[in-house]
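pinging the channel bc i need a second pair of eyes. not urgent but kinda urgent?? the chain im working w is below, pasted from the shared doc
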Amino acid sequence: MAKQNFGAVTSKCKICGINEWDSCGAKPAIWPCNVKECPYENPLSQNMTISEDQWSKIGSGLGQIEF
């Protein structure tokens, strides 16, 4: 995958130190950082391993292999 160009770094997050970019409105371009009290992440979605429904309605599917 080619390196993305997000423009210039405007600042760094005071909590985790991730770069904030001008092309993203002075916000990070990539999440999650999973640092507690991150101002850009919802605390309920931190440290989630599955973010989408991977279970089949009939009880079979590749999502179950993970468990």
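so The chain has a mean pLDDT of 75. and The longest strand covers residues 9-12. — does that match what u expected or am i reading it wrong
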